[in-house]
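Look over both lines before class:
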Amino acid sequence: MSVRLIFIRFFYTIMLSLLTPFLLLRLWFRSFKAPQYRQRIAERFGFFSAPENPGGLWVHAVSLGETVAATPIIQQFKKQFPDIPVTLTSMTLTGSNQVQKTFGDSVFHVYFPYDLPGSVNRFLEKVRPQMLVILETELWPNCLKACKNRNIPIILANARLSPRSMTGYSKISTLTQGMLNCITKVCAQSKKDGDRFLELGLNAAQLEIVGNVKFDVKNNYQKVDEVLKFKEMWKDRPVWIAASTHKGEEEQVLDAFDIILKQMPTALLLLVPRHPERFPAVLELVQQRGFSVVTRSSDAPCTNNTQVFLGDTMGELGLFYQVANVAFVGGSLVPIGGHNSLEPAMCKIPAIVGPHTHNFVEITQLLSESGALKKISNTVELASTVLHWLQSSKDCLDAGAEGLKIVEQNRGAVEKILKTMGYYF
């Protein structure tokens, strides 16, 4: 290891230590809306009760999207290696909630430790993993180095690297090279992603192009009776969903809905914010705008007079996609980078996204070229696209069928990743 890398990692650790009080303060402020944020803080420093069965596989999925992507990998791994324990870490409340809902007690869940040597080492001493699988591109210098020191293989699964991220990593090239040297295998989503890793200094022997795991994710909402209940309730109404919306998007969605209602007064909007702590604020916004609204959590009847159905529960997005005709996928009208447009495609409904889709470039392009997705720039285009698909059932069904076809044609990444993982168990 070069002296320069040692110095940079030391400087990074000092800076992170100085920032830690501000990270805790941020958690504290967020806890006013969601008390869970101030709970289990000790876990972020490696203080928690060790699992009954340490060892085995450690999977890190930073938030909700990565946890969903990790699900088929973990499920297939548990089928192949039923006696090997699995630890799954996350960094956000939505990720943690998804872990509990999907896996319950079948995996050991704990928050990912802050990337300080003491926190990381305490975590590793308690969990004692045989392998670390990181979803997408969540690179932490001290964690990677500590794993390498303990001869723990590290696989970067479903790895992606946007041009913007590559530029950022290239500015800290010494630290980036040090992190890449710790990784055993990068299982990249596409050749473009792989090429960017190589440009940063990854050895070609460390790279494998496997495709995108998100094509292998299935709609895990299995309560058929609930799906049928909603379909029966709304069978005569045109229904569109605005899913995983962020602050600044709900206003635009409601503006578009105003336009839609003028031409289609019976239309129903399913509005599902991305983060649970924002549910009350979004409900207040909808009420202020004068829409008739019912919340999922209230279990109140959604009548023909209801205009907005607010999905203010966790883990039911799969239900709402199955009962909608058209989907707008959030995080794309504001510069978040978009969320997973494959989720509506799996349910055979067309998708609409805004201009900000840099987190899903290849998926957006594939679905767009097939006609299953439409990219819009503003609320007027959002309204006109929703109206087109709601008013033309044939075009809507054809677009949905094309989306499902794209999903089925691109499955197989999980199998390739598991084959790579199997070499180390």
